[in-house]
């Protein structure tokens, strides 16, 4: 009898220190799933270390392993998207390569899926081993995002989740370039539920999310799911304009009714600098959105795959 297929998608970027342990844990976990077939899809996001070679060595002897090898580093969210594209399973699990998301929690996700849920997302109750800065910025980011976003996006939720084929097909049909996968899944709807879990420490190596990538990730999240910054910039502009009205009246008053009008240089500077600043901020916000429109209209592929391994003939996966 044919079992349902579970695809486990693992984005990897320079993870040579952990990848063997991750493979071991995922293999051991797969072996416990007696009534499911499992495929492990490792998306190598252009690693510059030995990650790809280690994955290939495993694929050579393990028929469950597939590799999607990117031609360069495209970023975590794109790697996750490629894994979703390449997954053929009836359910797809997204999990980090660093063992911060324990594979064992996936069995609870599977149980919920069998109860009829289409999305089971992990909610981090604790995040040991992460810097206070990371925890604080993550905490405020998820709260800000939730305030701004047009669809409710659950708090403190990463990409660690299980999705049914229904949801996977919706995500695959979403053509946007700026991927914010957890938001896209929320947007898709269906029956979703939370699963609290304790986020472990990174098994080895260090975070592949420097501040620069975190900022890009955060702006993608906010800008793909909200146009409120645009509306707020109108509000900011109007507030500044009304403030400057007082300044204008004051300046006119001095000019017409007094002879001290050479003074007021301070007020002038403040007004010029303030309005200049507000304008720059608003133009910047506009620019961010326009940049995104530009990258959408270029219609470039989302990622470039150098090699598929573990699929028949090592070609891109075929869907029947
Ligand atoms: N990752 C990736 N491409 C990148 C950065 C990260 O595929 O450009 C992967 C990384 O290998 C890991 C996951 O994304 O499996 C999460 O990254 P990391 O653990 O460094 O982030 P953190 O847990 O510190 O937020
Ligand atoms: Mg991590």
TrEMBL record:
Residues 7-169 form the Glycosyltransferase 2-like domain. The chain crosses the membrane at residues 233-253, 265-290. It is a multi-pass membrane protein. It comes from the Bacteria. The keyword NADP does not apply. One of its GO terms (molecular function) is glycosyltransferase activity. Keywords: Cell membrane, Glycosyltransferase, Membrane, Transferase, Transmembrane, Transmembrane helix. One of its GO terms (cellular component) is plasma membrane. InterPro entries: Glyco_trans_2-like, Glycosyltransferase_2, Nucleotide-diphossugar_trans. It is found in: Cell membrane. Belongs to the glycosyltransferase 2 family. GtrB subfamily. This is Dolichol-phosphate mannosyltransferase. It comes from Andreprevotia lacus DSM 23236. The lineage of its organism: Bacteria, Pseudomonadati, Pseudomonadota, Betaproteobacteria, Neisseriales.
